[in-house]
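Q: What would this chain look like folded?
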Amino acid sequence: MKINTVRFGEIDIAEEKILTFQNGLAPFYSSIRFTIISSEETEPFLWLQSLDEPDVALAVINPFRLFPDYAPVVNEADLEKIGSPADEDILVLTVAVIPHSYEHMTTNLVSPLLINSQNNQAMQTVMENSSYVVKQPIFSEVQTLLYGMESEGGGTDAGSDA
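A: My prediction, written as structure tokens:
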């Protein structure tokens, strides 16, 4: 399947790479079909590209790469919506916001995306009563991941002034 996208131009997507968000994805509820695009230039970020709206491409990231102790609590009802996958068949991603001032980039640890790698059913869940935050700063973690060192004044403490 070929689609034209605003960010990546024309791309060819294999049917088995199409993810289905049955209820859409907030706030893009008319976008049901997506695919994940990786780009060396934007590593460690991936792109969740809508196949229904060519101008919708969300930066996403594997939160475990930044926060190895991240432990999202997902209820059984949400897992049933994507086919009750085994733990090893669930891909967890979080939506990232990358502003022009990179040091202010964040990711939403409260509402992870859950993807069943066996049937490509996906959804965004919202963890209630979570100690995680919607706008978790990630600049220093990305710096550490990319360069193997903490950024100046950084660290992984979410409460730091870095």
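The first strand starts at residue 2 and ends at 5.
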